[in-house]
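Students often ask why we bother encoding 3D structure as a string. The short answer is that it lets us treat folding as translation between two languages. Here is a chain of 212 residues written in the first language.
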Amino acid sequence: MQCRVTEIFYSLQGETRTVGLPTVFVRLTGCPLRCSFCDTEYAFHGGEKMAISDIVEQVGAYKPRYVTVTGGEPLAQKNCPDLLSALCDQGYEVSLETSGALDIANIDPRVVCVMDLKTPASGEQSKNRYQNIEHLKQTDQIKFVICDRNDYDWACQQISIFGLEKCCEILFSPIHGELEPADLAQWIIDDNLPVRMQVQLHKYLWGEEKGR
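And here it is in the second language, the structure alphabet:
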């Protein structure tokens, strides 16, 4: 059983609840979306086919506590759920970064799903699979990447419509270099939103360097 892998690397987690913690990233190749703010276009094509056992062995060489499977869109590969389960079997805390456009119903319950809802400015709002919301666990996280005030207002509407604060933790992330983090922070404070604001730590540490 194989997955096509763009890269495997060890770094600090730049986002989510485990931000700042040393993490092994497994970046799978391919994505059916083309978000306007995508910073991993290099993962759309290419990559190397690897047996899941070889991926697990390479990850294990770092002796990690945390492992993130990302992309691209990892779930575009049919064997991704098997990879996630194999990593969980090693005792790691495993997270999946997914666009929210593909079904998460069959993901191993040990996995922390970090699922986007694509905002209007992403250009891919129509790809949101809202049925996924009913499959989110309390340990999961739902993320909104905010480009502007319109995105923010839209995200607030989704929280209200779907009662997202009852599903799991909500993350608001400003687009690096486009939306001032202080502006987003003030909007959240003004509206007393039940969300966690995050910035992309890796962008502040390493800029736009690929693979961080």
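Translate back mentally: The domain at 2-206 is CATH 3.20.20.70 (TIM Barrel). Keep this in mind for the problem set.
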